[in-house]
Every structure is written in C-alpha cells, then in structure tokens.
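Try this one yourself first.
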C-alpha cells in the first residue's frame, strides 16, 4: 500500500497555509524567489568532512558558493551533483545548512522538494544539533526528515538517531514508506517537533512518530536547538551499496521552499 504520495501544487499561498496550520505561526522561510547563489543570510556551506568522507565514505566533494553545484533559478534551489574530479574526489555536490542563521528548539518544518534518482544518489533533508551539548554524534541527536537512496527510488526513510537508538548498534528507530513519484513530482516533507514527541509527514500524511520516553538525553536529546541541512551525497556506505551509475550525471535535487513555524500558545 502507498500512503501520502499525491504530489503538491507549487506556490501555496501564505494565508492558506496559515489557515490550514491553525496555531502554527510562520517564523522563518525561504521561498527561493530570486536568481543566483543561495541567500547567504540564510544558508552556509558545510565542507568540514570533505577530507574524511563524512563518516559514511561518501564519494563527493562539497563545494562553497559554486553555482554549478548550488544555485537558485526558476523559483527553486537546485543542488547539482557533477561527475568531475575535485579535492581528491570524483564528484562534486553541495551541502547547505542554516546553522547560526536558523536554529530552533521545536517547531513545524516544511520542505517541498523533488528528488534525483539513480544508483549512487543520496539526497537528504535533516537536522543536527547546533551546540552539541550532550556530546558528539549520536549523543546529541540527529533528525532525518527525509532520506532516499537512488537504488531504492520509490522509498522514503525518516529516522531518529540518539545514544540509545542508532543504526550502528542495530537499535535505530525509523519508518520506510513508499512514494514512487518522489523524483518526478514535488512533495512536502514535514517535521512537527514538540517536547513530548516528533512526527514526520509526507504531504500531510503521518508516517513516523518518535516519542520522548522520559529516560534522559540518551533517548531524547531533542530538547536543545537544531538547524536544517539540505544535501545531495553520492555513494557512501548506504547510497553506494549498489555502486554509482556515472551515466546519470548531472543529478539535480530541487527544493521549492523551506518554511518553519512555531506553535502559538
């Protein structure tokens, strides 16, 4: 059975959104309604892991302010992976983040995107802790709103990573759900994050809930501020399990908007 995969109409009106969201108030947004590099007041580029493969043995080199890899045009952000040698890697791409420019504790996060597909592609929408107050990964947590690997193109994965629950020890908490047109149509990937739980939605259909069990940061480190990341990885321990199809490049990951809401009391 396929749940919550129906596509969305581009350019949803703000007032309509406000009416539908009830007591969620828009506090930060990026509509990509300009042309050129991503807005530097909202986005930075993460390149710190280029030398060591980001812990996942990924094949791409992430660039900074390079329009070939990240540009806004036609009302969307285009993160583009290219087959080209740079920095000792065979591919280039981009990893954007809001750290220091958009950091939040709780909220509703909506990202409307269309994914690339094919062996080796690994697009993601996710969140990391801004201050790492509980220690290094995974102690301070990670929220994966959307991940997709190109060799399994019809499947979206939403996950939680904590000291007690993460994949390396086989205790991960996640949900896998079908969306066979994720790479031909835009869909809205949503996180609603509150003190007692967080919930993941695809086009407003609930897909995954992760609850605060009240057993400390090892299970629930999500009481500190986090920031958003958008990236297109190539290969790696998961994305590259079935290799990389070089005939598919360039691979383009499109994001129509990012909207962040806070709950009004």
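Now uncover the answer:
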């Amino acid at each position: 059975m396929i749940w919550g995969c129906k596509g969305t109409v581009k350019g949803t009106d703000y007032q309509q959104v406000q009416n539908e969201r009830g007591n969620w108030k828009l506090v930060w947004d990026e509509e990509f309604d300009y042309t050129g590099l991503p807005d530097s007041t909202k986005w930075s580029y993460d390149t710190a892991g280029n030398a060591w493969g980001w812990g996942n043995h990924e094949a791409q080199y992430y660039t900074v302010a390079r329009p070939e890899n990240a540009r806004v045009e036609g009302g969307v952000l285009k993160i583009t992976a290219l087959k080209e040698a740079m920095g000792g890697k065979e591919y280039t791409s981009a990893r954007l983040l809001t750290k220091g420019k958009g950091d939040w504790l709780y909220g509703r996060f909506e990202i409307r995107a269309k994914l690339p597909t094919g062996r080796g592609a690994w697009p993601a929408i996710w969140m990391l802790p801004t201050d790492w107050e509980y220690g290094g990964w995974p102690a301070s947590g990670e929220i994966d709103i959307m991940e997709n690997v190109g060799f399994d193109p019809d499947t979206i994965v939403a996950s939680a990573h904590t000291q007690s629950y993460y994949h390396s020890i086989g205790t991960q908490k996640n949900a896998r759900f079908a969306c066979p047109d994720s790479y031909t149509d835009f869909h809205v990937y949503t996180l609603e994050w509150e003190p007692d739980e967080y919930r993941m939605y695809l086009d407003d259909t609930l897909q995954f809930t992760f609850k605060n069990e009240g057993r400390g940061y090892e299970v629930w480190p999500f009481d500190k501020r986090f920031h958003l990341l958008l990236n297109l990885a190539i290969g790696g321990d998961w994305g590259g399990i079935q290799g990389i199809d070089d005939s598919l490049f360039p691979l383009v990951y499109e994001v129509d908007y990012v909207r962040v809401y806070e709950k009004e009391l």
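Discussion: The chain has two helices and 18 strands. The domain at 29-263 is CATH 2.60.120.200 (Jelly Rolls).
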